Amino acid sequence: MAKGKDVRIRVILQCVSCVRKGATEESAGISRYSTQKNRHNTPGQLE
Predict the structure, then answer these.
(1) Which runs of consecutive H residues, i.e. helices, occur in 1-47?
(2) Is it the case that residue 39 has pLDDT exceeding 60?
(3) Compositionally biased, Polar residues: which spans (predicted)?
């Protein structure tokens, strides 16, 4: 049985210089990706 899900932390990565290509134009946008990490595997600060 698992000890608990409170040991997992949520990480949100944000890219502000990404370029999205549309059908006829290119526009700069903000892309966000979210994931979860195990605190025991990554105890230090993520950069």
Answers:
(1) none
(2) yes
(3) 32-47
Q: Is there a domain that residue 47 lies in?
A: no
Residue 10 lies in a domain: yes
Identify the domain containing residue 14 by its residue range: 1-20+27-41
Task: Look at the chain and count its residues.
Answer: 47
3-state secondary structure of 6: helix
pTM for the full predicted model: 0.42
Instruction: Give the mean model confidence (pLDDT) for residues 25-37.
Output: 72
Query: Looking at the domain assignment, is residue 46 inside a domain?
Result: no
Place of tokens 């698992």: 2
Rounded-to-integer distance, Cα 10 and Cα 39, Å? 10
